[in-house]
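ingest -> validate -> predict -> emit
validate: passed (alphabet ok, no gaps, 61 aa)
predict: started
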Amino acid sequence: MIQARVQMIPQGNKIEQIETALAKLLADLSQRGFYGEAGLTMSVQDGRIQHIRVALERMIK
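emit:
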């Protein structure tokens, strides 16, 4: 159990970045009149988050 906590400490910054990105993404797409797709992708290697990608695609109606 202690080992799991020790491994998660360096990931704290990435986790905060993901939470911030998701909150901004949800705020952007929850606006009235938004049509499209949104995505949040994480690249993970050996249990560590390497990259975070945010995609927002608007459709013109």
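The mean pLDDT is 87.
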